[in-house]
Structure formats: C-alpha cells, structure tokens
C-alpha cells in the first residue's frame, strides 16, 4: 500500500504546478501580442514605390492600409502600428517620401487614429 500512497502524494504535489502552468498558458493566450512591425510593414509594402517616387497610389497600397486598420483592433495594436510607422517616418528624415507616406491614409480614404510622423506620441493614443 505504501507505493500507492507515494504515487498519490506525488500526484497531489504536482497538481498545483500543473494548475500554475495551465493558468499561465491561458493568460498568455488571452493577452494576445500587439501587431508586429513585420506585419505592419508587409501590409504597407505595396505603398513603397509611391512613397519613394510619387505617381498614382496603387490599389494594393490602399487595400493594405485598410487591412492594417482592421487588424489594429486594440489599443495595444494601434500603438504598436503607430510605433512601427513612426520608425519608418524617422528613417525618411523629413524628405518628400515622408510627406507622401503621411498623406497615404487620406488618399486612400482611410482615417487612422495617428499621424505618420517621426514626432507622433504613440502612447497618447
């Protein structure tokens, strides 16, 4: 009988650890990660040619902006997208590409909750 008792004690000792692991997994699943910059950049890749050279705004660019807006559902998603675009805007160093990129949402008929600007405060969103 002693071996069975030892197994039961071991199972009871492991139960709190298993509950902790399960709780952590549920919490991690519930707290979904904000949009990644790679997702933001991939949605806006069709906009690069217009931002660099001007001309007509490609329909795929506007579709990407609309998709990005629909994917940014939470405050964390919106702030993450803002931070990614802020980084891109800073890399443009105020040149004509920045002006064209900043105007893209309006040209596509999409209203974003932030400006594409290297000085935007994404935490204020």
What keyword list fits this structure?
single chain; 125 residues; mainly alpha; Hydrophobic Seed Protein; 2 domains; 6 helices; 69% helix; transport; lipid binding; Bifunc_inhib/LTP/seed_store
Description of the molecule:
The chain is mostly helical and 125 residues long. The protein folds into two domains: 1-31; 37-124, Hydrophobic Seed Protein. Helix content is 69%, strand content 0%. It has six helices and no strands. The radius of gyration is 23 Å and the shape is globular. Residues 4-8 and 10-31 have low confidence and may be disordered.
User: What percent strand?
Assistant: under 5%
Kindly state the percentage of residues in helix.
55-70%
Tertiary shape: globular
Largest sheet: none
- Looking at the overall shape, the CATH architecture of the largest domain is Orthogonal Bundle
The count of β-strands is 0
From the N-terminal CA to the C-terminal CA, the straight-line distance is: 64 Å
Summary?
By secondary structure, the protein is mainly α. The chain contains six helices and no strands.
Topology:
Layout: H1 2-30, H2 37-44, H3 48-53, H4 59-71, H5 75-92, H6 96-107
